[in-house]
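Researcher: Following up on the earlier apo prediction. This time include the ligand. It's pyridoxal-5'-phosphate, with the SMILES given after the sequence.
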Amino acid sequence: MDTEPDTIAARVRTVRDEIHRAAIRTGRVPDTIRLVAVSKTVSVERLREAVDAGIRHVGENRLQEALPKIEALGRDGVVWHFIGALQRRKVKSVVGRFDTIHSVDSLALAEEIDRRAQEASLRQRVLLEVNLGGEVSKEGFEPGALVAVLSSLNGLKHLDIRGLTAIPPPSPTAEDARPYFRQLRELAQRLTAQGCGNINMQELSMGMSHDYQVAVEEGATYVRVGTAIFGARCD
Ligand SMILES: *Cc1c(COP(=O)(O)O)cnc(C)c1O
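Model: Understood. Below is the ligand-bound prediction.
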């Protein structure tokens, strides 16, 4: 029987163990997978518990909510990730504040990030979000469209394009997400091969609380986990 108390620290340990096991099962090096704790709606105090339990990567999807948390926890021990839909007027505030933006879903947004990064004299790490399920309502590049804009993206010298992000369509079981995760990995390989050496799609941000083990088995380098660490949200 599991007698460990149900604390944030215990949940972080459980998620880490699961990532480790999924990596070993598929012959991957566990250290190549980074756990991003998704702290939307979570208070600074509870987020601090997670950081004290060893969390180094934190994901937020709203700028307004993230700012006080960045202020409180700083950037020495915490790597901040922007994972939500990004409005163009917010780009200026996001660039340079977040290590990686996981949600670049259009060429126009990429261009705006590039422009703001140039103003700030930095290169912004980004991932391109892909709409794999062909869902009309969802953000993200269609895989075919991504191939078409690759050379334009390649010309944005203040972007450091590291890889791809996807959120598969909702499904009853984690196994249903596997073909989408696989598709994202194959798309990254294809883009790297076509990218004339300048595009390096080594990062795959995929997998959430209900399917991160499958995502790790399929090559995720970032998993974004909220509920399994902090409990259910009221959103
Ligand atoms: C909320 C959120 C997550 C985490 O979802 P959980 O199911 O709580 O793990 C991951 N990625 C994005 C983009 C999110 O908005």
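Model: Residues 38, 40, 61, 83-84, 208-209, 224-228 surround pyridoxal-5'-phosphate (CB under 6 Å).
Researcher: Noted. I'll compare it with the apo version next.
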